[in-house]
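Continued from yesterday's entry.
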Amino acid sequence: MSYDPLYYPYASRRMTTYARNGMVATSQPLAAQAGLDALKQGGNAIDAAIAAAAALTVVEPTSNGIGGDAFALVWMNGKLHGLNSSGPAPKLISAAQLQKLGYSEMPRLGFLPVTVPGAPAAWAELSQRFGKLPLSQVLAPAVDYAENGYPVSPNLGRLWESSYRLYRDNCQGNEFASWFSTYAPNGRAPRIGEMWRSPDHASTLKEIAETKARAFYEGAIADKIEAFSKEYGGYLRKDDLAEFAPQWVEPIRVSYRGYDVWEIPPNGQGIVALMALNLLKGFDLCERDSVETYHRQIDAIKLAFADAKKFVTDPKHMQVRVEDLLSDGYADDRRRLIGNQALTPEPGRPPGGGTVYLATADSEGNMVSYIQSNYNGFGSGLVVPGTGISLHNRGYTFSLDPSHANFLEPGKKTYHTIIPGFLTKDGSAVGPFGVMGAYMQPQGHVQVVTNSIDFQLNPQAALDAPRWQWTEGKRVVLESSVPGHIAEALARRGHDIQIAVDSVSFGRGQIIRREESGVLAGGTEPRTDGGIAAW
C-alpha cells in the first residue's frame, strides 16, 4: 500500500508504529503487551491474538468477557481462514414463551437475552489449529492480571462508571448481585488509576486453559452456568453449551480498487461494509474532505444497512444468497438511488455495539484480525457466581415478530454486530483492520478502507481522521473535528446533521499493514486507551 508515512492532515496523538519481528495492536496497552509476550516466547500471531483476547476480558471488562462471542480472520500459509464462534439461542427458549411472559420485544438485561457464549471455544480452536504454545502459557498474562490486579486506565474508567450507573438503576434483582460484588466491590465503579482484581476470573481462566475450554462447555464451569440459569428462570442449559462448536467459514470479499476487502459471512454484519464498498467503487472519491465523498459514503451505508436488516441472520435461515447481495449487478441497481439529496433507506430486491478488536502479526507472515464482545458493555448484567464470568446479551438483537429475519427461534443465531476485517492485494496479505462499536463497525470499516485506499493515509492517519455515523432515517452524527463547511453542505443536501460532544460512539479501531519489505506498520485508535506492542 502506497502512502507518505509522514503525511498527517488530521490532529494525531500518535505516530504510526513500525517493527519487523512482530506487532500487536489492541484497545488496551496491557493486552497488547500480553500478546507481545507470547511472540517473544516463541509463539506466533495466533498465540498473540489469543493472549491479547484473554487479557482483554480482564483489562477491558466494559466491552467483552469470557461469556461473550468471537470472530477471527487468520492469514496463515498464504490463505485466509474465517472462524465464527458466535453461539445460538438456548434450545428451551421461544418467542411464544417470552410473549406469554408479557414481552413484546427482547429485553436488554437479565437471562432472556443470554445466548451460548463462544469466546472460550474460539481461543481453544485457534490454539489447537494454528497455535504453537500451550494454551496455559498463552493465557498466563490474563490470569496474572485477574489474580494480582491492574490500575484502571482513563477511558476504561469512564466506561466502567457509565455501566455501573446503568446497572445500578436497572438491575435490582438478586440475580444481579454477583455483578456488583465483582465489578463494583466497594459499592461503586473502580476509579481511574485504582487497582482492580478478580480472583474468580483468574480461576476460571486457569480452568479454561488447563482443559482447552472443555470445563466451560462440559465440566464444572458449565454446571455453575446451568445452576445459575435455572435458579433465575433462564433457558440456558449445560447441553446447549456441550453441543456448541465454533465454525470454520469461508470469508467473503469484494474487490475495491485493486484490493480485496474480506469479512466474515453472515450471521455477522461484515456484509454491510462490503455492500457499501461495492456501491462506492462506482464513484470517484477524489478528495476526502468534500461533501460529495461524505454524502456518497453515508447514503451507501444507508442502503447496505437497509438490506442487511431485511435479509441478514443465521445463514440457515437466510432467504437471500450472499453472492446475490454482493453481485455487481445488484450494486449497479442500488447505486442509481444515490443522487444529490439524502435518501431514506429502503431494502432492495436482490436477485434470486461493547466490543474489543485486536490485530496481530509475526515475522513468519502470519496475521490475525480478531474481535470479541459482550454486545452491550458488560452484557446482560449477570455474572455467574464464583466465576467472574459476565454473560453477554447478544440475544437482544432477536425479534419477537414472526415476519422478521431475526425472529427468535430455539438454536438460532442472531444478526451479529462484531466483524473483523482484512485486506489482500494480488493474493498477498496487506493486513488486518477493524473498528469496534456495534452498528458503527461496518461504517468504521468503510471509512478506514477508503481512508487507506482512496486517500492513501497511513494506518495511524486512517484511524485519526474525523468520522461520521449514520443512526437512522436521514440522521447523521459527525465528530466535532469534521470541517464546518462539510456539515453545512450535508445539511443542505437533506441530511439531519448532529455534532457529537465526544467521540465515544464513533468506534475504536486497530490496523496493521505489512509492507513489501516485510516491515509492519501499525496504527491504534486515538479515541480509547489503545496501544501497540512491537519488536
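--- second protein ---
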Amino acid sequence: MTILENVTAAPRQSDSSLDGAIDGAVRALLRAQRADGHWVFELEADATIPAEYIMLGHFLDEIDVALERKICAYLRRVQNSDGGWPLFYRGDTNLSATVKAYYALKLAGESPHAPHMVRARDRVLERGGAAACNVFTRFALALFGQVPWRAVPAMPVEIMFAPRWFPFHLDKVSYWSRTVMVPLLVLAALRPQARNPRRVDVRELFVVAPEEEKHYNRAAAPTVRGREFLAVDTLLRRLEPLVPSRIRARAVAAAMRFILERLNGEDGLGAIFPAMANALMALAALGYERDHPARAAAKRAVERLVVARDDEAYCQPCVSPIWDTSLTVHALLETKDDVVTRAVADANDWLASRQVTDVVGDWARKRPGLRPGGWAFQYWNDHYPDVDDTAAVALALHRGDARRYRGELARAAEWVLGMQSNSGGWGAFDAENEHYALNEIPFADHGALLDPPTDDVSGRCVGMLLQMGFHKDHPAVAGGLAYLRRTQQADGSWFGRWGTNYIYGTWSVLNAFLAAGETTTNSLTVRRAASYLLRFQQRDGGWGEDGSTYDPANRSCCKESTPSQTAWALLGLMAAGEAHHPAVARGVAFLLERRNAEGLWDEPWYTAVGFPRVFYLRYHGYCAFFPLFALARYRNLVPRGEPLPRLGF
C-alpha cells in the first residue's frame, strides 16, 4: 500500500475482460483509419458556428436551402430546455450564442411564433436584449444592419501600419486573433451590408430600439485600465471619419496582402472557421467575383467543414487530423499488439510528410532565424504550426521508429527549443505572447486575445525533450520543469488550457515529471498532484469535469463522469507511479462497464476548450483513443507487471 491509497478498493479486473475491451477498441480504430494512414474525427463546437454558417450564406446570398434545414434541425436539438443555447453540453444559456442561433433560424425561415423561438426570444429579453451581446455578435448584427456601427468598438484598419513599439500591434496578439481580426478590419472599414435576400430582421430581440440604444460598448475589464481603453475607443471612433481616403485604401490593401498571402487554399485562412468566413466576406465586399480563384477557394474551405447526415448537419470550427492521428498512434502503440504495426507505420509516415519545413510563419517575428520544423493541427496550416501538436507527433514518431524519423525529430526538437518563452514555459503558436493589458481593450471582451505559456503545452514539450534524450539538467528542460513547479495550483493540480480542465492539465504535466524520473516515491510535487486526482474521483469510479470549472466559482463542478476525463486521470495516476492504487482499478472498471456496441465509448460532453469561458469543443475521437490508451497502459503495468516506462506521453 502506498501513502496515497484510500480505504475503498475495487475488485481487480480479469485479464479477459480487459483484453476484450482493448481488442474491441483497436478493431474499431483500425476500421476508422483512412486509406493514406491518418485518422480524423469530428470536432464540434457550440451553436454559434453552424449559426454563423447560415448567416454567411445570407450575407453572400449563396443559400443552400436543403442544408439549412438540416442545420436548423441540429440547432433545435442542442437548444436548452429554457429556450437558450449553451456553450457546451448541458451548460448554462449564453446570450450571444442564443442571439446568433435565433437569427440563423429566422433567416432560414423558422417562424418567430414557433414555441422554440418564443422561448429563445424570452431568454434574450430577460438578459437585457441583443444589445448586451459580445463584440463578435454585435459585429455580425452590424453587417446585417441590425445595429448601427457605433455598436462595435473602433477597429481602424490603419492598425496595419502600426509600428511594433505601438501599444497595439498584430504581432502582440495570438495567431487566431490575427487571422480573425485582419479581415474584420477590412469589413469595419468598408461597412458592407449583407445581401439578406429575405430581408429578415431581429428587432424583437432588443429591449431598446437598436438605433436608440446608447450603451453598446463597455469596458472589457472592470479596472482603471479597462475604463481608460474605453475612453480611447470613444476617441478613435470620433477620429475615424477624419482619416484620408487614400490612407484608408492603402491600409485595406495592406490587410488584403496579409490575407491573400495566408489564404491557405482550400484549408482556409488560419484553417479556422471564423477567419475563413471573415476572409470570404471581405473578398466579397471588395468585389471579388464568385469564380475568382481566391474567393472560390475561400468558399470551398468553409464548405469542407460541414458535417451532413440524413437528418442533421453542422459546421465544425476546424478539423483536427494531425492531433487525432498522433493521439491514436500513441494509444495503438501502448497496446503492443502486432496487429497495429502496419497501421502505426502508415500513420507515422503520413505524419512525417506533414511536417512544416519550408514556410517561415508569423511565429518568426519573435524568433527570427529559427528554422521551421513543427506540425499544424489541421491538414495544412503552414503559417501557423503549434508546439503542442509538434510535441505529440514527435513523441509518436520517436516511440514508433526513432531511427527512421531522426531527421524529422531533429528539426522538431530544434523548433520546440526555439519556441520556449523566457518564463520557461511554452505557448501554443507563439513565444512571449504575454501582453496581458491587451485583454482589456473593448474589442477583447472575450478575454482570449493572447497565447501565453500554459501548463498543458509546457508539460508536453518537456516530456518530448526528455523522451528524446535531453537530460533534465538541460537549460530548456530545467527551465520547463521549474515553470511547471511554479504553476502548480494550491490543491496540487495544473490548469488545462486546451482540455477540460484541471484533470487534463494535471495529466499533461505528470507526463513531464514521469519522463524526468519523478513519481510519488521521490517527488512532493507529484504526490500533491496524485492526491488531487484521487480526491476528485467520483462515486461511480470515473472522473468528470464540467466546462464551467473555468469559472473559479465552479472550480470542482462535475455533472457526470466521462470516458476521456477518466482516461486522463488514470494515465495521470499511472504516470505518478500509482498503477496499483485501488482508485485506478475502480477507474478501469468504469471504462470497462461503459463500452458501446462498437467497442468504443459514448461521450456527449465537451471535454476540450478553444477559449476558456468563451468557446468549448467536443472532440469526437477523445472517447475512442484515450480510454484505449489508459486501458492498454494499465494492462502493461498491472496484469503484465511491466516497469513504468519513462515516456513523455
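The chain has two domains: 15-43+318-438+446-637, 44-212+222-315. DSSP finds 22 helices and seven strands in the chain. Will compare against the first tomorrow.
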